[in-house]
TrEMBL record:
Protein name as annotated: Putative glutamate--cysteine ligase 2
Similarity comment: Belongs to the glutamate--cysteine ligase type 2 family. YbdK subfamily.
EC number: 6.3.2.2
Cited InterPro entries: GCL_type2/YbdK_subfam, GCS2, Gln_synth/guanido_kin_cat_dom, YbdK
Domain of life: Bacteria
Organism field: Promicromonospora thailandica
Entry's Gene Ontology molecular function annotations: ATP binding; glutamate-cysteine ligase activity
Primary enzyme class: ligase
Amino acid sequence: MTGTGRTVGVEEELMLVGHDGAPIARAQDVIGSARPDDGPLEYELMEEQIETATPPRSSLEDIAAAIREGRAGAQAAAERHDARIAALATSPLALAGTTVGKLRYLLARAEFGLTAREQLTSGCHVHVSVADDAEGVAVLDRISPWLAPLLALSANSPYWMGDDSGYASFRSQVWARWHTAGPTRRFGSPEAYHDAVKSLVATGTILDEGMVYFDARLSARYPTVEIRVADVCLSADTATLLAALARALVETAARARDTPAPDVPVEILRTALWRAGRSGLKDDLVDPRTWRPAPAHDVVGALVAHVREALVDQGDLDTVTELLGGLWASGGGAARQRAWAAESDGDLAAVARRAAEATLA
């Protein structure tokens, strides 16, 4: 499966906020009354958020349109209950989230305590089609060095409980509290991957296979690799860029499956992810070519160079270049949120309101 045969689907977790910018617990109302033309809407752990999912699409133009349609449908559903959607990976305002009153979520809250109670965080998950589990595991073993730059590109959660966290993506810090979250070792075969998942479930420390929260994993529902490392992107353009780069990473890795996969220690991968969450696009990242610090612009350039052939074959290179230019000009989601806070004398409710507007821009 090469070039135009590889499809992409994008899942976005979106915050529900009131017109004052504060998160609002309306998920059951919004989803319960959703109409077919709102698109598929799903629950997340908290009542203050919902999830959209695009159908699998091949062309980047169609992927971009599906992301925007998903956001518009979610907004239409939210408006019926006096709420808005906001592509915020964490709430700028302090809030104790409300766990959705469904058995699985209530069990998670009881079992995992504060880790579950404080998981009002929103990510973006990109599903890229693969031929089978063998190709999927070959991809997982080869994309891990490049996941940290994807986090940096998406970073959109500088605020936590009403304070500036000092991070571009504090969601990545909160999410890392889950004991199955983060980067993984090299598996080598589908059997080794599935044995690892079964072993985690057998420990009894997670509810089920759905709680295997690897940064990239084989989807349990679809024939895809699911890349889960990113914050939900403030801009639909950034989400489109993320989808294009994720597909190109998968394609590049699949083409290299007959060559040895890099054997990078998990502790190095985890440290690179921490650096990406801390810095975003502002400062140095860890360069996957050397595992030494390098300016974010150089590391992102190295990512594009790494997947350039796949981008060219897919016809995505020009669009990716244009979208990257826009991202560098804006500074990304975290930088935009901080700029809005400065413009409003630290009014974080105003930040949330402007994020809601940017979500649909």
